[in-house]
Amino acid sequence: MTEQHSVPKLVAVLGANGRMGAEAAKAIEAAPDMKLVAALGRGDSLEQLASSGAQCLVDLTVPESTEANVRFAVEHGIHAVVGTTGWDAGRLSALESLLAGHPDTGVLIAPNFALGSVLASAFAAKASKYFESVEIIELHHPDKVDAPSGTAVRTAQLIAGERNAAQVPPSPDATTSELAGARGCEVDGIRVHSVRLRGLVAHQEVLLGGPGEQLTLRHDSFDRASFMPGVLLGVRNVAAHPGLTVGLDGYLDMGL
Amino acid sequence: MTEQHSVPKLVAVLGANGRMGAEAAKAIEAAPDMKLVAALGRGDSLEQLASSGAQCLVDLTVPESTEANVRFAVEHGIHAVVGTTGWDAGRLSALESLLAGHPDTGVLIAPNFALGSVLASAFAAKASKYFESVEIIELHHPDKVDAPSGTAVRTAQLIAGERNAAQVPPSPDATTSELAGARGCEVDGIRVHSVRLRGLVAHQEVLLGGPGEQLTLRHDSFDRASFMPGVLLGVRNVAAHPGLTVGLDGYLDMGL
Amino acid sequence: MTEQHSVPKLVAVLGANGRMGAEAAKAIEAAPDMKLVAALGRGDSLEQLASSGAQCLVDLTVPESTEANVRFAVEHGIHAVVGTTGWDAGRLSALESLLAGHPDTGVLIAPNFALGSVLASAFAAKASKYFESVEIIELHHPDKVDAPSGTAVRTAQLIAGERNAAQVPPSPDATTSELAGARGCEVDGIRVHSVRLRGLVAHQEVLLGGPGEQLTLRHDSFDRASFMPGVLLGVRNVAAHPGLTVGLDGYLDMGL
Amino acid sequence: MTEQHSVPKLVAVLGANGRMGAEAAKAIEAAPDMKLVAALGRGDSLEQLASSGAQCLVDLTVPESTEANVRFAVEHGIHAVVGTTGWDAGRLSALESLLAGHPDTGVLIAPNFALGSVLASAFAAKASKYFESVEIIELHHPDKVDAPSGTAVRTAQLIAGERNAAQVPPSPDATTSELAGARGCEVDGIRVHSVRLRGLVAHQEVLLGGPGEQLTLRHDSFDRASFMPGVLLGVRNVAAHPGLTVGLDGYLDMGL
């Protein structure tokens, strides 16, 4: 690993007053190989980011400001690790154009920083073409307003993509008499069930079944702390991945 | 225990050519405290039941014949352990009238002989009034035609009964945006989710959640063999329970 | 329910500076049917308890002071709900003698206030005599110093008691070649396995197995909040249970 | 895919009188893209294998004969898919030498044909370097004589290999007071727990934990049928993998 790809030591957090941002600032301060040089919130100027000497930005802000933040970083040669949502195809494409002119700078856009969740979805997709049946159960606290969860939808899409590419037929199902909703909803042909239960945080199971066997991939997220190892992994690796990477799995070594 | 309530030694199986009946005949033959004196199938005469000297009948036949079988047994002073479906309120009431004239004879009508399943449903119902949230997930092989399963419906009804009696409010649920079916179906106000997966047999989970904790009651039925301990328990205890008992839980010691 | 057995409205917490005590004080303040009249810590005088007008004491202190606290309460006609450890046979016996002279006062000594955990252990014990095999897996965070957990030991003892009373033979086990420790430890003849894993809090599974079926009773404690419903249930019911009760299960309706 | 690498259509089974072999013969007969041309048992001559015209051998025999069977196959240009145990380093090395002279012939030696089990172990190994903690629980029927299972030992070794290569420290464990065996056994520094329970077949869970999250990879093998998709996958792919492959994962597309 050459000098210019060395681990970013000087890190700035944007959105440091939010819950995720505050947690990230703490995690960076506690990491022995990083130094938190700026923790900026709503109202702070991006000039403070430039003057802080940050080598890497962690953006945990809001959809309205994330694009401007990241463009500013790239234009100043600062790598960016981004957990903010709102990056649609248009924004991603514009960012790629910008990065073409800054070939040494890396940006990671990660909708999910929980390593276990990212791994579970990737494993589920890879495994799914070897099984006749696959269904997803996601379980969350009862204050969640949407069902199914965004992670379950993405997992179902990944699975459907792999199964379609391998020409696996749909999961068998002889149901002829159903009380409405019993068999869950369908996302790209994959059944998804959403449980809401007091006491839970965020949990997901992918069930894969074949003759005489079952493979279950379960992820439990008990706490916001579960996102921090993923944020740190992003910061540690972004300089070695110039250009745009979407999804933390792009930084994970899962080749088997 | 007095002599007339001693364990029935001489047992007859009706429906012995069916899968459950054949399994039951084998289990009775293997039990050291029982003797199989008749294994009758379609076309055999009920007179053979009387002449076999059976003290207890195990009826695993079809809805069309079970009522006549059981009446014949009761009229001949033979206890009956019944796994056949089709016993609606009218049949049960007629049977009770008949039993009133045969006060020493016992009949057990059991829709489910899997001890673990019966215990799990009873525990779930008892526990459910202490938790804010409860949902049911049942998982079966993909050749099953109905969803949810009969066991899940009965479990939901038991739970709803206990919660209503204790005036527990409905499980909280903030869902405002739902892909149709994601949140399962509702049975007496209890959410039930049905998974169908190759490789599975018959499985059920009741999830109970309160602040910071979850209680999970899961039953797995891997094999028809799981019904046999319940059948034998029925045969061993029917003489000590004269009159009509519906549900194997009536014979189980679950007082806590 | 008569007037003198009505729900205690005025509640004092001892040990209110500890983590459990502080949580309990908050839970009592939030309960619509209770009023927190005193929150006392180390160094506060018990006279403050008397002068507060408290009808019920919640003791979450230390083994060194709990006995004196509870005696003071009983002598002043104040019911007590006690989560502090250290109540050995001698202390319990002395407390019973004292209570004999105060027949309207109730004391609950509860080693575990998590409703789900108490229910799971009680259910496991009751179910265990119907299954050939039973084993316990407990899973905790890796900072725990003892293995197995106290809850697992108590659960194993309850199970062993029920199985011995019903003359159930030991769980079958054909192991002849074992890497030391693979089969766990034994508590009263019941196998117990202890998992330690970062991210976990306190979890336990009792696995019960018979021919072709498995019953699993799992409890997850994610958070100290899980003890508060049990504390409130104790406060609400202690006046209706004069004398000494050991274990929250004494207040639960689990008759099946 | 060129003609000479096309799917072997003509398949012979050796060990066809054993339980696995009989099941494999049935599975091959049922596969639309294969034809069973020989089903040979103890005492049959290997010459029948040659004269059957088989393009692929499935060897499910005994350690004493498998080496000779496979050498015969290779020398006759017949691919081999081998589930028999007993292939130590010496035998494997001799087989590789032989295959060097038969560059178009493929041999797969697979200690485990359950796809889900192979995938779960591979996923667990890959994921393990991203988590602080990892432990294995394997659960089997109580007639098993060894603990832990061979699959658990191999899984632990794979995990230890990945973690050591990535210089991950040992899983944290503050246990200072242990009832002997509670924390399981250690295989290459990985804790393994073995449960034995009536009703179970063969099951394994790998638990991975980090701050605030858990990843669980569970495989359930309910039935010998679970090995057949793996056998067929081996037969379908062996011609495309000339030389020696150890482990079914060599044929699986798990690149992520």
From TrEMBL, chains A, B, C, D:
NAD(+) binds at residues 15-20, 83-85, 110-113. Belongs to the DapB family. Residues 11-113 form the Dihydrodipicolinate reductase N-terminal domain. Catalyzes the conversion of 4-hydroxy-tetrahydrodipicolinate (HTPA) to tetrahydrodipicolinate. This is 4-hydroxy-tetrahydrodipicolinate reductase. The active site is at 140 (proton donor/acceptor), 144 (proton donor). Homotetramer. It catalyses: (S)-2,3,4,5-tetrahydrodipicolinate + NAD(+) + H2O = (2S,4S)-4-hydroxy-2,3,4,5-tetrahydrodipicolinate + NADH + H(+); (S)-2,3,4,5-tetrahydrodipicolinate + NADP(+) + H2O = (2S,4S)-4-hydroxy-2,3,4,5-tetrahydrodipicolinate + NADPH + H(+). The keyword NADP applies. It is found in: Cytoplasm.
